[in-house]
Amino acid sequence: DTEVTQTPKHLVMGMTNKKSLKCEQHMGHRAMYWYKQKAKKPPELMFVYSYEKLSINESVPSRFSPECPNSSLLNLHLHALQPEDSALYLCASSPGFWTAGPEAFFGQGTRLTVV
Amino acid sequence: AQSVTQPDIHITVSEGASLELRCNYSYGATPYLFWYVQSPGQGLQLLLKYFSGDTLVQGIKGFEAEFKRSQSSFNLRKPSVHWSDAAEYFCAVGADRGSTLGRLYFGRGTQLTVWP
To answer: Which of A104, B75, B81, B82 is the most exposed place for a label (fewest CB within 10 A)?
Structure first.
């Protein structure tokens, strides 16, 4: 299995809703990432988990809450989002920084629309 | 500080023509370099990577890239473009140390259009 799987593929939520994005990989990778991508822009890093510990938080607003329950799973909990948070949210994983550097494998993304 | 420059926002080529997408980087040490491709509404697919060794690297879908340290460049090439290559291409440099360990710094992307 060489995939990073993200669910759901599409999500529409109201500004008062609570929802979660899920990401799963079974490649034995030890680093996992969340990126946010707006149209016609490169991905912007949000969070990095290394060995299930949060190692980078790019000053992301607290309405985004990441969680790494185990080495294969990464969640992004969403609460009280704003319309400007609408974007493609990408999950990625990498084998481990000391074996293959920051080479990242990306999922297909969740298209989030906040109404 | 690490950064990546892709000087061409949009490139148009005819099917069958050769292609070169430019990428320049700024990094204090030997960089990890990547090219990714993204089709509309999709995730990013890794085309190729450079960590060390041979400066000409081969990737998937017939792409290759050459690392030139003296020019801080990592240009992507393909000898004959297919219509299915139309997509957004991102060059990225990866950090391998310190507080930025694990980060990928992306260029702004180059949109490739292929004429039939």
So the answer is: B82
Flag if A43 and B94 touch (Cβ within 8 Å): no
Gap from A55 CA to chain B (nearest CA, Å): 8
Alpha carbon of residue A35 to chain centroid: 5
Token representation of residue B108: 């702004």
CB atoms within 10 A of CB A14: 10
Burial B82-107 (b: 16+ CB within 10 A, else e): eeebbbbbbbbbbbbeeebbbbbbbb
Kindly determine whether residue B102 and residue A90, on different chains, have CB atoms separated by under 8 Å: no
Asked whether the beta carbons of residue A102 and residue B104 sit closer than 8 angstroms, the reply is: yes
Taking CA atoms, what residue in A is nearest to B106? A42
Q: pLDDT tens digits for A40-60? A: 999 999 999 988 999 889 999
User: In Å, how far is A52's CA from the nearest CA of chain B?
Assistant: 14
In contact, B13 and B19? CB cutoff 8 Å: yes
Q: How far apart are CA A30 and CA B50, in angstroms?
A: 21
With an 8 Å Cβ cutoff, is A115 touching chain B? no
Q: Which residues in chain B have their CB less than 8 angstroms from residue A55's CB?
A: 101-102
Q: Do A21 and A6 contact (CB within 8 A), yes or no?
A: yes
The tens digit of pLDDT for each residue in B43-82 reads 999 999 998 888 999 999 999 999 999 999 999 999 999 9
